[in-house]
Automatic annotation (TrEMBL):
UniProt-listed InterPro entries: FAD/NAD-bd_sf, HpyO/CreE_NAD-binding, L-asp_N-monooxygenase_NS-form
Domain FAD-dependent urate hydroxylase HpyO/Asp monooxygenase CreE-like FAD/NAD(P)-binding: 5-152
Protein's UniProt name: FAD/NAD(P)-binding protein
Domain of life: Bacteria
Amino acid sequence: MDRIAIIGSGFCGTALAIQLLRQARKPLSLTLINRSGQFARGLAYGTRSASHILNVPAERMSLFPDRDGDFLDFARQRLPTASGGDFLPRSLYGDYLQERLRQAIAGKAAQVGFASLQRQVLDIREDAAGQQLRLDDGERLGADRTVIATGNFAPTTPAGLGALDADPRYIRDPWREGALEAIPATARVLLLGTGLTMYDMALALQDRGHQGPLLALSRRALLPHAHRHNSRHPDLPPLPETLLRPRHLGELLAAIRAFVRDAAGQGHDWRDAMAALRPITPALWHNLDDDERRRFLQHLQPYWDVHRHRAAPPVAERIQGLIRSGQLQIQAGRAVGARREDAGLTVGIRPRGGSDVQHSTFDYLINCTGPCSDLRRVGEPLLATLLDRGQIQQDANRLGLLTDDFRLLDDQGRAHSRLFLLSPMLRASHWESTAVPELRQHAERLAKVLLED
């Protein structure tokens, strides 16, 4: 009997488990491992805040590439008036994942076994019998193949702010359960970052009745654009073949701008052009070498992110309300140092374009800089061990792990036959690998690879 272990049970691990359970027609033993015990929810969908809603319309959030309306059908059982263009609660999506996993387990073939473990995997070694996964309780789990399906990692403390690490007034991981509970309603709060995590934290504070001032700080002070209110799925402009030719970032940027401009001339919104680019984004990424990718990350990624990773309309409207009221201020600059004082956390801020450092004191600082992708800094024992041993290889720009058709590469560039990856760490090879529409396709493809081997 083939033994497959999946490490991680957020969206990626759950989607893969469901696909394997649905497709398997030969003897299979499947084990889903998660250290938190929160199966089928993960970081994104574990929230219970009503203000935390999906950033993708309901019609595009199905687990299954061939059943577009599956999530919407589930949602309408609880929200009968839900439409395809609605941005629904993330907690509801977590319920959907749990229910579809339950159904897949119940409907699996008789020769397919399923087990779930609340454990942390510390190491993976290969032997004549296959693989041995060392767990945090000292036990070992045998497997023939293992998929690393861990999700996004918590932010790391930015350079210059290390003095705050031990202070409870500094919230490094905003998604830690109860992270905001100690913040008084009148507290002065610095939100480090101006992306979607900042939106989530600002609204969560507002839901708690927060009345104190909020300052959101990032290098460029760019805010995510908003999705449109769509009653139907928009038509997308056709992609010109010339987009796949550029090998240099400047040429690619010019080609994309021309495409957006031409699409606008045909009556399309720029959002339609961004949506049309999604299927070929991995190919565009493959066409750039490491130096060109580094240039993109240094100079263009913030602009890409605010156009590509947009906010749901109700979320964007509430954020604009906080800005108009003056409670939330947005500043372009860098936090260049900090010190802990009885009166608060004093942070040195260098405004963008300036040289003088201004010092301001806050009662709390929330790290909203987004997930860390540098695997040497995330504090994950399994990844650190595999990297040290050379079993896996981080990409040159530290976005994730290098793969060949989901097979992890070792430090010599050789593809593993037993060790696979399905997670946002696929960004190293695919770039576009953080949202459900792409990850569900990866899950379906990887399930086929695993079942055909």
